[in-house]
Amino acid sequence: MHTPFMGELLGTMVLILLGNGVVAGVLLHSSKAQNSGWIVITAGWGFAVMAGVFTSIATGSADAHLNPAVTLGFAVVSGDYSKIPTYVPAQFIGAFLGAVLVWLQYLPHWAKTEDKGLKLAVFCTGPAIRSAPANLISEIIGTVALIFIVAAIFSKAVMAGGIPPTLGPYMVGMLVWSIGLSLGGTTGYAINPARDLGPRIAHAVLPIAGKGGADWGYAWIPVVGPLVGALIAAAMIRAFI
Fold it and tell me: How confident is the model at residue 1 (pLDDT cuts 50, 70, 90)?
């Protein structure tokens, strides 16, 4: 069971359990963390990425991508696309399972929460101001920042300065925290197709008390935007790093 597929699945599951979990804690009624705010959400997501990366490495995936956009971006950079058929399905499955665990964790709170939009926001992202071109641009920019800076963190030039590779998960977690604080206010910074679509599907199929629709009209943006961003980031990495 110690395989790259299982590593990506379990790592992404942990990512969503803790990432969507912090959103649930902040948004759902009668949670002890209710209304604790955006700083808590962005910090929680940064820690979730760190935990997911450690889990992924420990259970079989040395790459610990946890994100189809990251997998695509680094496939383009390397010219090796062989990992995509293994990593991407695992990431989507892991994201779905992580969302199911969040639903179970907060089981009594769904009925207590009247706002259907808040329930959906626990599972997937949505725009602060709905504008498809602007929302798409936001997801592209956020993903470019994620992938390009991750490549910079692990570049030979940076590692030559004596930074231990074991600090990598902490640094990537801090990067995601930074992206959330600086760029996340527009769309909720999906920057990861699996992170958004897997839980959105879970929202659609789970018997969540009083839920509304899954906003499928918006769902393509947090999938297409990160994939486009991955291609741009790959070109920048090949040019500059």
Answer: confident
pLDDT at 50: 98
Closest by CA to 70, choosing from 210, 237, 220, is 237
What percentage of the chain carries pLDDT values higher than 70?
100
| DSSP class per residue in 154-210 | TSHHHHTTT--GGGHHHHHHHHHHHHHHHHTTTT-----HHHHHHHHHHHHHS--TT
Say if residue 49's pLDDT is above 90: yes
pLDDT, residue 165, reads 86
- Flag whether pLDDT at 181 surpasses 90: yes
Ramachandran area for residue 98 (φ above 0: left; ψ -120 to 50: alpha; else beta)? alpha
Q: Which fold has domain 4-240?
A: Glycerol uptake facilitator protein (1.20.1080)
Structure tokens at 124: 């997937």
Task: Please tell me the pTM assigned to this model.
Answer: 0.98
Residues sharing a CB contact under 8 Å with residue 133, sequence separation 6 or more, in sequence order: none
Which tokens in the block code for residue 89?
A: 């399905």
Quote the distance between the C-alpha of residue 103 and its chain's center.
Answer: 17
CB distance 127 to 213 below 8 Å: no
Q: Among positive and negative, which fits the CA dihedral 104, 106, 110, 112?
A: positive
Angle at Cα 77 formed by Cα 167 and Cα 124, nearest 5°? 65
Write out pLDDT tens, residues 145-158.
Answer: 999 999 999 999 99
Q: List the one residue out of 61, 21, 41 whose CA is nearest residue 176.
A: 41
Domain ranges of the chain: 4-240
